[in-house]
Amino acid sequence: MAMLRWAIVGPGRHSNNKMAPAITSASNAGLAAVVSRDLGRARDFSKRHTEGRATAYDSYDAMLRDSSVDAVYIASPNALHAEQTLKAAQAGKHVLCEKPMALTMEDCRRMVEGCQRHNVRLGVCFHLRHHPGHQEMREMLRSGTIGEVALAQAQFAGGVRGQTEPPPRSELQRWWEDPDLVGAGAFMGSGVHAVDLLRYLLGQEVVQVAALTDGQRPERPLEHVATLLLRFRGGALATVHSSRRIPDPRNDVVLYGSLGRLACYGSVSTTLMGELEVVSQSLTRHESYGPHDTAMYRGMVEAFGQCVERGEEPSASGWDGLKVAQVTLAMLESQRTGRTVTLGP
Hints:
Layout: E1 4-9, H1 13-25, E2 29-35, H2 39-50, E3 55-57, H3 60-64, E4 71-74, H4 81-90, E5 94-97, H5 105-117, E6 122-124, H6 132-142, E7 149-157, H7 179-182, H8 186-202, E8 206-213, E9 225-232, E10 237-243, E11 253-257, E12 260-265, E13 272-280, E14 284-292, H9 295-310, H10 318-337, E15 341-342
Parallel strand pairs: 1-2, 1-4, 2-3, 4-5, 5-6, 7-10
Antiparallel strand pairs: 7-11, 8-9, 8-15, 9-10, 11-12, 12-13, 13-14
């Protein structure tokens, strides 16, 4: 198995807690470089995760000239994703981009087309596809275990008891409070994962979106709570909830079909955990998972490396990132207009 040598762009909390451990523990990956505007921060990150072996850069362009780097993990502010992806593609580097892929449909298309043109793989970090419970749910849905799905529900939320507002961001995370850099609030942070998970499970695209949030207004430009009602191409309806103001959430995914119920309770998380439940005419089953802190991310890194080696598209490709961005933009339009938004092809 070929080793893919990675550069991390944006050594923030998620890179530190999830992605660097995933890359350094993956069977087919290694961390070759770290990029930060603060060279000292990049060096400290390299020391923490590779005993200083990964080269520290304060220049993205200089890293792209490093022939030891095969792939780039982009965890910079959302508004920078498109240009950084296009530069990486031009340099012949494969790209695994944090969600959201980009803030406009035009940028999403440019990213997909640019990576295709330069023959590099483009993946988006939808880690929930790498939960074994979700993978089993997908297979059971394909085999008709619960029949025709009528309704699906998914929630990805969090909060702090006793606080009516989310905890303040650190200085390094302050860009999450800038609408021009982040695009949206709680939905962009977690709700997009729930939408992609439902797309992955159902194997269908969203065709209509209706949304309510507590934001997108002058006094609160970024939402802390968002609820979406979705219609999928096959006819199933779905609700998606995301929030930074819900302590003790039940972050579950549940699907109701004509022959039964399929659920994974507590699995919509950054930690691999939860309980799979199947109740149908043909099968009743319960299975527990985890907790495993970085297992989904390691699985994502290893799967991406295998796709590069085989010349295949990743499970969550640039196209998947584009379709979730389309739902995000429809959410914003629906909240602004009070109307249901029908999505184009």
